[in-house]
């Protein structure tokens, strides 16, 4: 191939190379090495004889093998993206290069995306909570059906935000009679034991039916890490109980 004037000669092809080092020395562990500050892959345009598209394929031999990209700091991996040990697509992060936490997983059979480390919980009380007239009382949500990231503190009956973000909460308050079904049942969600979460307050004012009349609450909150949310109930006119098993509190981070 003839070289252009004023330029170094270009070989027509490079075939069967065993190592290639650009700006550094490739070795057996890294037969292709590029030590550079920027790189560009661009499609060959139609005018130059190409299609205008650019597709890069990465292939592994079998499902159990690994295929992906590693993102490192000081050659210690902080994130990985790809198919690792299966055909499930994963995005995982690491604080130290050895422990990895999956942020996203995509099921190849269904296309369903999961966030396995998303803070979420559903808790309930396993005893009838007595509440007097006019007294806002924290409900003893002391058991959990699930509690991802351990964000719900069943001992203190409250949710503790593990990270800052937007959270969605909901609750069910189930009435149980003490002396009268004319009790007026109220409920609310409270942030940091003092601030009522706007939009979470509600009251059932009709004549109640024991272990059938329920009050449902739902609202969103922008929380900082360490903020707490608890469920509170109250009665007016007559006292009563918030029933075991069906009185529940749930939430999840949504943004």
Automatic annotation (TrEMBL):
Domain C1q: residue ranges: 116-255
InterPro entries xrefs: C1q_dom, Tumour_necrosis_fac-like_dom
Name listed for the protein in its UniProt record: C1q domain-containing protein
Organism: Roseinatronobacter domitianus
